[in-house]
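Q: Structure tokens for this one, please.
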Amino acid sequence: MAETSNQPFTMHGAREAIAAGLVQVRRQVETLERAVFENPAQAFDLARYIAEAACRTILTERGVTWEEKWEVPRLVNEVCNVLPMVPYHASTEAEARESVKRMLGGLKGALQAVCELRGGYGFSSHGPDGEKPAMETMQALLAAQTTDAIVGFLFRAHRGDRRKELAARADRDRTTKALIDFSYEEPALIAGRPYPHSDALMAVDKDGWEEWATAFEESRNILDDLRAKFAGILHPGLAKVSFIHHDGAVYLRIVDTSQTVRVYDASAADSGEPGDQKFPATCTPDENADELTKHWDDWGLAILFPVLLKDEDAQRLNEETKENAAWVGEMLARESRPSTPVANHSRAAPQGEEESTNGNV
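A: Here is the predicted structure, written as tokens:
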């Protein structure tokens, strides 16, 4: 006989998956939540169906072909093979991967047992003839909770990773476009019509595009560091600032709040003398990021990367630096990286010519 309870059962993980797109199991989830108390035998059939639908949806959305004959344990294994089981920043931690793998192994074993109970004791059981003792609410709840846990985890990993993956891909493509168009300023002529080189490459040579897209390294986002150091004078349109290394060249990469990406040559301050590189390609992108955030002051920033500053502050700092061109020469000619920030001498000036303070970010 089914047990009764005043406490309703809710499948939180499955409902979260429904909200994220697994809408086809909404009716089954609602029915299962009632069945654990009202019809425990039916709960096993519904649990199997929900797990099966979730796994098939994940595999389909990830472009993995599955077969109708695959049972739930096989489907779960295939899903686990295509999902990241640990966060990206811990992906190299073998111990963490093994621990999560063991935890999932336990859940998969429990789900296998749910399927076995469904086959022998479920509403549509297909075991040998003869009446068997009915499972009750306690066993039905265990089956429902097991299904809920693994469906919630797998769909959360799928959706979260997929969003991050798509966002990272879009971000990398925007950077690739900016690098190509910076490297080839003149448009490509196709049938007498001008096109940006990036658009032409993407249209006619996907492999060539991928070579560009995978050939650069990027530093961490240093926008928060810059905000802390240059409070009040940074351009409000900044969304991300990082260093890019590509083919022996170093660039400052700026993403604005509309997600437009621009790159700037970081060698602009170099004198051209051997060894005089403020942001050398022999350093890592993160080391060059540290150089800018730890060793440059606002006058240096106005000289090299005025685009990082508010228009009025870039103009003011450039005006102030004109009063002390000698200090600027000393700063730009320094041959080694300082161990402490550049001292605030009288305000420095750029060399004779004034850089544009165009505030477009």
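A few notes: The CA atoms of residues 198 and 245 lie 18 Å apart. Residues 123-127, 335-360 have pLDDT under 50 and may be disordered.
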